[in-house]
Queue: 2 jobs
Job 1
Amino acid sequence: MSESQKIENNLNLSNKEKYNLDPKIDNFEEESIEAPRYGCALSGVYASVLGLRGGVPILHSGAGCGIGHLFGTLYAGGQAAGGNEGGTSTPCSCLVEEHVILGGEEKLRNLVESTLKIFNGDLFVVISGCVPSLIGDDVDAVIREVKNSDDYLNNEHIDNNPIIHVNAPGFKANSFEGYNLFLNAVIDQLLIPEYENKDNKIRSESENRNISKNNNKSVNIFGIVPYNHVFWKGDLLNIKNLLKNIGIEANIIFSESNGLENLRKIPDADYNIVVSPWNGHEAVKKLENKFDIPYITFSGVPIGAKQTNEFLRIIGDKLAIDSEKVESYISTKEDWNYRLMEYPADAIILVRPHSYFAVAADSTYAGNLTKFLTNELGYLPDIVQITDNPKVEYREAIVNDILENLDSTVKPDIVFEADTYNIRKNLENRPFLFLLSSSLESPTAIKDFGALHISVSFPVLNKSVLVKHYSGYDGGLSLVEDIVSSFVGPL
Amino acid sequence: MCAYTKNSHKNSCKRRKIKKLLDLDKQTCPNREQRANGTNVYYGKASDLLEDAKNGNNLCSDRKFQQSGGCVLNFYLANRVTTIRDAVVIFNAPVGCSSGSLGYRELFRKVPTELGRPEEYNSHWMTTNLQQDDVVYGAGQKLKDAILKAEKRYSPKAIFILTSCTTGIIGEDIEGTVYEVQNDINATLVPIHCEGVRSRLVQTGYDAFWHAILKYLVKEPEKKQKDLVNVASMLSYTWQDRLEIKRLLGKIGLRVNFIPEFATVKQFEQLSEAAVTAPICPTYTDYLSRGLKEKFNVPYFLYPSPTGIANTDEWLRNIAKFTGKEKEVEELIKEEHERWVPKMDKIKEEFLNLRVDGKETTVLGSLGQGRLVSQLPYFDELGLAAPAAMSQDFDDLLIDELENLLDTVGDFDIMVNTFQAAEQANITQHLNPDLTLTCPFQGGTWERDNNVTRIHSLRGDADPWSAQSGYAGAVAFGNFLLQAFKNKSYQKTLSEKTEKSYKDWWYEQEDPLYFVEKGK
């Protein structure tokens, strides 16, 4: 579609119509769908528990859910092996027909008890899948029973660690929403006020607010879904380091060695920070109600200097950090950042300047990747496809954030689409030279679209992702490296 | 009864054969539990397992502690069926059951076209993405819509419908929908009953798949192709394995029909025209082989697979018998031996040099039951001892082969355990072999200050280094195993520097089946 056609086509439509944002009419994501770029509720919870070190998932499900998501979540999330608790190592009740008829509760009780005996772990999370939900197992009752049993209280092999339950049948929601379900369960079942009396881990409201006046500022980071956001490990660590530089202690919860402790520290924070347009939003609202912790939401993970500067300034301002400290850090980083941005300049200007690009990615990254390429590399946004199926009420903000924050005269088409056939159709006959998306497009991007491909969004099967990240100053530079490396050669 | 003795003549005591005809009028196959007395748990002497199998004593058991070893859909079928070309696969399931197939577009793309990978090919999958409402009100219409959508998008030759726990439990009438829609579309609809909850034995999934292929897809032969050999190609066989099999059979004027992975729909349709169905895994191919024989009189054999020199000889001779190539095959074997046997001898010599105090180097393999019977003789050929082996499951289909195997390599310990990582970690710790061969999906066995490498590579691997089949594969795998002894730093470092999965008492106690509840 030419630029003038595009404009003409969109001229008479309101944003609501154009982007299919009306909650009343929008249920296409519940239809049958081709190769969607997410898993189910169970897999999102599973990914979250595995992302939490010391977390042990206990699947109450058919026998294939763990190994299925070894392939479909862990390998697909940047080629991660299952580790001690993932994949075929995951405790699972492996339900079969006789449990469907007789119930799976006894099987689950045995499984939870034996898992507590055999597994090294700090937090045990029972994840109920489709089968127990369909046959009506009372999972909470089973967990209560186990917790009150002699074995749990007295067995020498059992450490009396907490057990929580997340009801996450696959037909309930997708994997990104699974992260929200997990956080919900943690807040309801682990961060309980009774706990505070026991060993003082959770403070009262007044204590909470007092802390915020002293110098130890602390925040929790929400919005990055382990494995489903393939750069989760690197991005979380990088955000922690960024904030540390302006004097803020960030609890990134996942990927660090003390996962359970991190969860228990959640109520101690002065602020909750969300770096996603929808993941984690329910959790921070809940935490505000329960522990009176205010929150700040960002449209996504900050990528490159401009977005990172803004990120730091907003947080610094809200947490009453000395602005000189923030500005001094920013100017040091900017100086370094933009000198480095000069190195690829000849390659960019000679070979691929002001090029059109397309993005098909989850909403936590899609918008900010688009802004970075547009506002820092001077590229032209052709089309942005949001693939993670964000809840309808969050969509307008996602669209506006992209449209209102681009320096180019050209504005991209923005489409919410999870169906791989449609995503590929939407990419046909467009001028873009770069495609930032899942690895699904990688093998044939040149042939199908004449575009160079960079894997940035789930699933990423063609990259081993360990410390790689696009957040922050170095993350933006890392993205520049990937873009330029895709075309550069002897000049 | 026919107790196993080391010298009993192979044919002196025929066990109960699986003689019952397949009933293709039924919607699906019987489970392996019923069809072949399959078991998911065993630990003991292989000779005892054989005896128990003959006496029908093997049963499935529940475990108090169990790990996610896989269901009939995931990952076994899901990851295979979605590689079929000119087809669309529809998972009639909630959205998560198909996630394991997200690699479908990339799987074979790294195979260079120079090695025979077609430049253009297509495979697609969809999910009916079942929601809470569908579970309550039924999803027949949704499946119907998905089928029509698939037809409209791709005009595929076939549409495979994979069922799930959810459709099984809510009682979806898949055949009803298929009956209703089939006349409106050109694609052949192939419903496969692979509900995760239907069986404790994942191999039931293979049977269910072949049942549907035989029932819906294989056509009456237009002409018999005397030079065509059906070979089941699997996830665990690399692109080079295909090339080696093609090379060998090509030399005696035969062509290979590799199914199901990366096959076209047409290749399934003409399964009936082949001269013989040859195994590369007996229990994977069993149901198909029997079905093709019963329905279309295509002969088959189930043993051996082309792993190692002697087995490859036998495999080729078996094929030659059914294709009238007896003379040519001897010529071929002679030629190939001249080329490869000296290389094997060199590998054997190097393994001899590895021996400490003259003791045979020990290997612990963690295998599918089919690989068990084909790979142990190969280790024997290399001069490696396999005093124990782990197998995913075991059933009566393999009684003959296990007996042959015991004749060839002597008795050994066997653990049948459906990918149970904790049991494997325990047994590996206690047996302490010189080399453990694992399928990394199985987890667990990393945790040893010893030598671990893979049991096999995968289908998309096009490097000759990774081959295992035929003569070239025997040599390549031998060299691969030798390399495993040359540096164990990665495994050693990780086992030293990372936490163990399980508490110490689990490794210390000696019963890997500690949590098994006997006999269901």
Job 2
Amino acid sequence: MSDNVKYLCFSLGVEEFAIPLLSVREVLGLPEVTPVPQTPTHFLGIMNLRGRVISVMDLRTKLAIKPAVNTETAVIILDSGGFNVGMVVDQVNSVQEILPEELAPKPTLESGKANEYVVGVYKKEDHLILMLDIARALSLEDKNLINNQKTVA
Amino acid sequence: MDDFEIELKMGFLEEAAQGITDTEQCFLSLENDPSNPDTLNKIFRLAHNLKGSSKAVGFDQMGAFTHELETFILKIKNGELPASRNVISTLLACTDFVTQMISGLKENLQAQFDIQPFLDQIEKASIPETESAPNQSEEPEISTPPEEVSAEPAVDQLSSPEAVLATAEIQTELQSHQEPKPIMEIHENVVPLESKKESEKQAPLKATEAVGIKATNANPAKDDSIRVSVSRVENLLNFIGELVILQSVVKEQAMKTQSLEIKKTLHQMEKVTKEVQDVAMSLRMVPVKMTFQKMQRIVRDTALAVQKEVNLKIIGEETEVDKTVLEKINDPLVHLIRNSVDHGIETPETRKANGKNEKGNVTLAAYHKSGKLFIEVKDDGAGLDSEKLIRKAIDKKIIKPDTKLTEEQAYQLIFAPGFSTKEVVTDVSGRGVGMDVVKTNITDLQGEVLIHSKKGEGTTFQVILPLTLAIIEGMTVTYGEDRYVFPFNHVHETLRPSKTDIQENTSLGQTLMLRGDNMPIYKLGDFFGKKSSHKMDEMIALVIRTGPMPFAIWVDDILGQSQVVVKQLGSELNGFKGVSGCTILGDGKPALILEPTDLVKRKLTRSAA
């Protein structure tokens, strides 16, 4: 079984999502994060990953999902095109093999905030796992998050 | 193309880039000393290597071109061609072209080039000038000791195909170029055709000689270094930084135990870690040699363009500096050097009239002093005329007509954008951009440029730079719940102002009165929209004087001063004005490094908007 069909499943609130395992560098518990002023709310700050400083974003805030209560919080370190970024999720669940033919296209929905980041769905037993286009979900393409002009109170 | 092949080709290109820089240096020193056999041998060896390996990795065009180049160089080596200025210029044009090919291939391994114009140029230059340089006669023509002959059969096999080829070409070229001329008319130092054939027999030998040297590794000093990518060094530094943090954690834990042994071991470990850290830091340091030597070429070309005779002297090329710093001073140095040659050094006639040697001198020196890198560009030219500078600046409306300036301030005018004392814009200078670049780049590097000048005796530009950008002396402060680092060189002084020192003023905001100076004072949190629970009389003011206007910043407390390793923020945080990077503090938590003048600039533009 090749690595290409392995996915990392994690929870945001009560919902379950999956991203390709190959885009994941590592998973760790949430360390202390230094906030960075003047960044969007989903930008938690910067953390120290063994001597390297990387940015940490909260995927829950970004996708407007209510955080679960009483779950451990984890950071998934993504390896996206040579640059690393941390992503906070409620819980990391499992690594799942999902063959392309098992994927169903996402149902046509009225537009929701998380909608455009979902590239497909996978039915696991009694619930759906949403496949995320993680680069799009974190708006990594518009890399510059700093708004120098924004007036702060 | 598979990965291995790509890797092979990229590896070759890296090597070739190095080789071509060396070759350029040799050409330049050949110009000064046209008959030095060591230089000639080295050039030939480099050209030969370049040809061989470019063919081996499959860059056929480069192979073909460097083959012609090698043939050309062989002629110089054998004394058939004098190393005249023209010939050297052709050679330099060829190295430029090869450099172009290398960078072109680096972007696209399939890149194609038009080599014909350069081949024509080589061919044109291959015709020996009849009025060849007089020192040519000193060239040892055929002086092969007998023991080298004995080596011939063995090494001959190694290089014979190309050597024979080269010989054949020389022969044809010689015939085509020399046949029309009667042999006797050729200048005596050009060997007549008959004896030329003799010397051609020696040609393969000389080629093999070079190969022989290579094979027996008679030059071991050349390859005692390895190339390592900067990212790997950075990785190493990151891990060492983490090691130091972990060590301090262990140290705290060890305090709780009674075991003397552990404490002793830990103490030893600290020493070793410190050593390792120092060594790792020094890996980023490189000698300024490479950058300095490039300036030879700049001086030569600029001097030719403005028809002056200029000699460049290099001092302290072994001085080491952080690679990133070195990369960024290349452009400023080029501008400074060109400025010295073009503006500093007078024309040969003027120099003669003033009783100076017609040949001007430019000295490029580097040295370390009190933890900083000093680079000096010194010329023995006319010196700066402060009155002329001021007049020009008034003409160009850079300063107001009634401005009073000291000598030093007047000198600094030449860094103003758009300022030029030249009436006519030439290829070399006159647009008033170069010196502006110098100032901007040096300031970006946290450095400064001082100018010393004496009328009639010359001008010295003194560039003072930090040795590294990777570590800065930082002052860690707190504001609210967060910690920030200020580069120490920005903080002029710290104080706890009394209530009477602070004036609240609606139109000006808060003003700090300090020994007769009035300066605005801002809360650090105001730049970021953060709040602090501290009362004003518990806070500390940092006075910043590095910007155009002095100002002060309120912070809650100062935690201490230490050397911090500067790390870049991710690209998603690019363009964060007022923040130059971040660092990891002693407890392993990151903190932002602030650039106070930018912070204020941002605040000002915002309140203006």
